[in-house]
Each structure stands twice: as structure tokens, then as C-alpha cells.
């Protein structure tokens, strides 16, 4: 049976992990490669690296980092942040990334999804969507949530699928950082709207939240950052918990 | 040991090379016919779209070389699918090594299948020491139905062949290079054939 995936997310700046990494047993918690190894060993199903460097620095640091990560781990990983062309994607994939995630650049230029899917295959195109519930409507936001687009979450997800996206990474801005659980209603509706896998993001605080995202939110995967980085939730215990809740996981 | 990784601009060749290196081997990423035919082992990776991948193989003449190879050959993911008779993806004619036609998953399941699933009914030296029902990483929209070349089975809406073997030709739908320790063991088994 296909299992539900647990995905730690690492924010990267100038080749280093930033924000909220606090592993006691790591020599260098800022080293993304060390962290990637640690998560792989403890049972993460995939990893996501989100590069938040300025464009110039990213060019210098991201590709060597992707190579180092690809050498160090043997589970799939996605790279996101500032990707806006087929050329960007080609470089990342050639250096060992398995998937790329595109966000604002896809909203600004939806044909990028089509182009990437045709050139590299849908399996490596993750469309990340940040959305916020405003007046009962889920509005897509751009630039890390700073600007509101006119798009509706569900319409945009459908369009992304039709253009060849292989997966949707949905972050609820209402839930992100709250540790009060994922946006399960919107997730479930998203699952009915599209037939590609959905990664839930934003709001993880407890192990029960993950169970809820899989059971009520019908998500295929759940992504989180700080609960893993601060060891508030350990992946082996999380998977055991999910198994007891009859959620299919890889142990 | 000389290991050739076939390069036709459609593969995740770098990941395969890294996986070999972590097993203490190395490989050459090549589209050169002589390099490929003289290698001890040949790995035929592949991700992406079948029609354009097949075209690239034809452009380099490798579509005629691969079926004649005598040494152990391992097709991975799209590589495996291209070793079959046909695939429904862009109605592409394959290399015809495995006598099976690759079909698209019905939309009663999420397509692509993406993530970790189990393999069972293992029946090949490729799986020496691999217990039944271990998890492997898969990402694909098309599948090989059960057939006489099947050496592993996976369930996704229905049972399908997640690995194939005919004589010296092996094909796996999952990504051994991305499937943790079990995947590494399968790659290592292939290199020991």
C-alpha cells in the first residue's frame, strides 16, 4: 500500500540552514547536509529545501549544496525558491535534485508549468501554493505571502494540474506558524478538486495534527519545519503514532 | 568493474552515479556505443516523458544497441517502461525487450503514484536477501500490468509488475537509487550478477 509521507522542510540561505534549527546532537546544525542525513536516518520520506537567498548568492551556493545533499542521502528531495526558468531546473536536476517546487514564478507565468512538465516530466514539478482564507475565500498569495494574487486556491490548483504539475504543496497562511493544526477542510476540498498528490503544509504542532491532515484533510504527505528542527516531534515516534491511528506509513 | 550509465538527456544519471559511488563503485555516464557494449554492467535510467525520451534514444542510435546487449542491463523507471513493447504515454513504441504493453493508471487512484510502496512476490537474483514487503520509492503515471516477466508485484488500485526480468535484462519501476538501504541493496545485487 502506498504510504503517507512525512517531509521535513529546511530553509536555506547562502548554503546554510536558517531559522529554528536546534539539534542538540549535531556538531553543526547550520549544515544542511548534516541535517539531511539526520532526517534520512530517522525515517523522513522526502526532504524539501527552500532557498531564500538573494538571487546572486543563490547562484553561487545552491548548486554545490544540491550536489552535496544528493551525495549524502538516498531518499528523494525537492528544491524550491527563486526558480523561474527551464534552465534553472535543468541545473538542479543535473546535480541530483529529484523535484523542483515553483511558486510565484508559476503564478506570474503559468506556461512555465507546462514547459517544465514537457521538458522534465510532471514527476519533478511541484507547484507550491501559499493561500489565505479571506472573506470565506482561499486567495493565492505571492512572494512568500506578501502580495495577494487574484487567484482562487482551488481554481489555481486545477489549472496547475491541467498544465502538468505532478504535485501540489499547499501552505495555509492562516495556519502557518500557529502550531494549531493543518487547514484540513481546504486540504480535503483540494483533494476532491485535483487528482494529483497533495502535500499539506502550515500549522503542525502535535502528532495528532499530522493524523488529522491525513485522515480528515486526505493529504498524501505532510510537511513541517520547526516541530522537527526543535525535536518537539521525532519522526520515528510520529510514524508509530500514525500507525496506531491506522494511517499507512513506512516504518 | 566497468559500469555504464546510459545518457540520453532523460535520466537522473547523477543520482544513479552518486548511488554507485556510495556503494564503492563508479560509473561512466555515456551515450557512446562502444563504452556501453564493452561495460560489465549497464544501467538505463530515465525520468520524464516516454515519447521524447524514445526520440532521443533513436537520435543516438541507442534504441538498436540496447536490445543486443549481452551483459546485465538494469532499466529504472522510465528506462524500464521503454524496454517494454509499447507504452500508452504518447503511444510510444518501446524497445520490445519485455513483452508487455505499459498502460496509464486509471483516475480512480491519484496519478502519479508518488511515494513509498511495498514490493512482494519477489522472484529474481536481483532481490537476493531482500525480504518481502519492503518499501521502495516510486513515482510514475504509467505501469506494466502483471505478465510472465514480472519478478516483483506492487499494489496501487490494482496489482501490477513493479519489476521485470528477461534473461540478462532487468527493469524496476521503483528508484533503487532513492530508496534508502533497501534500494542500495538491490543496486548492489545487480552489480553482483
TrEMBL record, chain A:
Pfam families: His_biosynth (PF00977). Its main location: cytoplasm. GO terms for molecular function: imidazoleglycerol-phosphate synthase activity; lyase activity. It catalyses: 5-[(5-phospho-1-deoxy-D-ribulos-1-ylimino)methylamino]-1-(5-phospho-beta-D-ribosyl)imidazole-4-carboxamide + L-glutamine = D-erythro-1-(imidazol-4-yl)glycerol 3-phosphate + 5-amino-1-(5-phospho-beta-D-ribosyl)imidazole-4-carboxamide + L-glutamate + H(+). Keywords: Amino-acid biosynthesis, Cytoplasm, Histidine biosynthesis, Lyase. GO terms for cellular component: cytoplasm. InterPro entries: Aldolase_TIM (IPR013785), His_biosynth (IPR006062), HisF (IPR004651), IGPS_HisA/HisF (IPR050064), RibuloseP-bd_barrel (IPR011060). One of its GO terms (biological process) is L-histidine biosynthetic process. Its EC number is 4.3.2.10. Heterodimer of HisH and HisF. This is Imidazole glycerol phosphate synthase subunit HisF.
From TrEMBL, chain B:
Residues 5-191 form the Glutamine amidotransferase domain. It comes from the Bacteria. The active site is at 77 (nucleophile), 175, 177. PROSITE patterns: GATASE_TYPE_1. GO terms for molecular function: glutaminase activity; imidazoleglycerol-phosphate synthase activity; lyase activity. It is found in: Cytoplasm. GO terms for biological process: L-histidine biosynthetic process. InterPro entries: Class_I_gatase-like, GATASE, Imidazole-glycPsynth_HisH. One of its GO terms (cellular component) is cytoplasm. It holds the Pfam family GATase. Pathway: Amino-acid biosynthesis; L-histidine biosynthesis; L-histidine from 5-phospho-alpha-D-ribose 1-diphosphate: step 5/9. It catalyses: L-glutamine + H2O = L-glutamate + NH4(+); 5-[(5-phospho-1-deoxy-D-ribulos-1-ylimino)methylamino]-1-(5-phospho-beta-D-ribosyl)imidazole-4-carboxamide + L-glutamine = D-erythro-1-(imidazol-4-yl)glycerol 3-phosphate + 5-amino-1-(5-phospho-beta-D-ribosyl)imidazole-4-carboxamide + L-glutamate + H(+). Its EC number is 4.3.2.10, 3.5.1.2. Its main location: cytoplasm. Keywords: Amino-acid biosynthesis, Cytoplasm, Glutamine amidotransferase, Histidine biosynthesis, Hydrolase, Lyase, Transferase. Heterodimer of HisH and HisF. IGPS catalyzes the conversion of PRFAR and glutamine to IGP, AICAR and glutamate. The HisH subunit catalyzes the hydrolysis of glutamine to glutamate and ammonia as part of the synthesis of IGP and AICAR. The resulting ammonia molecule is channeled to the active site of HisF. HAMAP family: HisH. This is Imidazole glycerol phosphate synthase subunit HisH. It comes from Flavobacterium cauense R2A-7. The lineage of its organism: Bacteria, Pseudomonadati, Bacteroidota, Flavobacteriia, Flavobacteriales. The gene is hisH.
Amino acid at each position: 500500500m502506498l504510504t503517507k509521507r512525512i517531509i521535513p522542510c529546511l530553509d536555506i540561505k547562502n548554503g546554510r540552514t536558517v531559522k529554528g534549527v536546534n539539534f542538540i546532537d549535531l556538531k553543526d546544525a547550520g549544515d544542511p547536509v548534516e541535517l539531511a542525513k539526520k532526517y534520512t536516518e530517522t525515517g523522513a520520506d522526502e526532504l524539501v529545501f527552500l532557498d531564500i537567498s538573494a538571487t546572486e548568492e543563490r547562484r553561487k551556493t545552491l548548486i554545490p549544496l544540491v550536489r552535496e545533499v544528493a551525495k549524502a542521502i538516498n531518499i528523494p528531495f525537492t528544491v524550491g525558491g527563486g526558480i523561474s526558468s527551464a534552465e534553472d531546473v535543468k541545473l538542479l536536476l543535473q546535480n541530483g535534485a529529484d523535484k523542483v517546487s515553483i511558486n510565484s514564478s508559476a503564478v506570474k507565468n503559468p506556461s512555465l508549468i507546462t514547459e517544465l512538465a514537457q521538458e522534465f516530466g510532471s514527476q519533478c514539478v511541484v507547484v507550491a501554493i501559499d493561500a489565505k482564507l479571506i472573506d470565506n475565500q482561499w486567495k493565492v498569495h505571492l512572494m512568500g505571502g506578501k502580495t495577494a494574487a487574484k487567484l482562487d486556491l482551488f481554481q489555481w490548483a486545477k489549472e496547475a494540474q491541467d498544465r502538468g504539475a505532478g504535485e501540489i504543496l499547499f501552505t495555509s497562511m492562516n495556519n502557518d506558524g500557529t502550531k494549531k493544526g493543518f487547514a484540513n477542510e481546504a486540504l480535503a476540498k483540494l483533494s476532491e478538486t485535483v487528482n494529483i498528490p497533495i502535500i499539506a503544509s502550515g500549522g503542525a504542532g502535535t502528532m495528532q495534527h499530522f493524523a488529522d491532515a491525513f485522515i480528515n484533510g486526505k493529504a498524501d504527505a505532510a510537511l513541517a519545519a520547526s516541530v522537527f528542527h526543535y525535536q518537539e516531534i521525532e519522526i520515528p515516534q510520529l510514524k508509530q503514532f500514525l500507525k496506531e491511528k491506522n494511517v499507512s506509513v513506512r516504518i | 568493474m566497468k559500469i555504464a550509465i546510459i545518457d540520453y538527456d532523460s535520466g537522473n544519471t547523477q543520482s544513479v552515479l552518486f548511488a554507485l559511488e556510495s556503494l564503492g563503485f563508479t560509473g561512466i555516464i555515456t551515450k557512446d556505443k562502444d563504452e556501453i557494449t564493452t561495460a560489465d554492467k549497464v544501467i538505463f535510467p530515465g525520468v520524464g516523458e516516454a515519447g521524447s525520451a524514445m526520440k532521443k534514444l533513436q537520435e543516438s542510435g541507442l534504441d538498436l544497441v540496447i536490445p543486443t546487449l549481452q551483459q546485465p542491463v538494469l532499466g529504472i523507471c522510465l528506462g524500464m517502461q521503454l524496454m517494454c513493447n509499447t507504452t500508452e504515454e504518447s503511444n510510444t513504441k518501446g524497445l520490445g525487450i519485455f513483452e508487455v504493453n505499459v498502460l496509464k493508471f486509471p483516475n480512480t487512484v491519484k496519478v502519479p503514484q508518488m511515494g513509498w510502496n511495498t514490493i512482494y512476490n519477489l522472484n529474481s537474483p536481483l532481490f537476493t536477501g531482500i525480504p518481502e514487503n519492503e518499501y521502495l520509492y516510486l513515482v510514475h503515471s504509467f505501469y506494466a500490468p502483471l505478465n510472465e516477466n514480472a519478478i516483483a508485484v506492487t499494489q496501487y488500485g490494482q496489482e501490477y509488475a513493479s519489476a521485470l526480468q528477461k534473461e540478462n535484462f532487468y527493469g524496476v519501476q521503483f528508484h533503487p537509487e532513492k530508496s534508502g538501504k533497501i534500494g542500495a541493496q538491490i543496486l548492489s545485487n545487480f552489480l553482483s550478477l
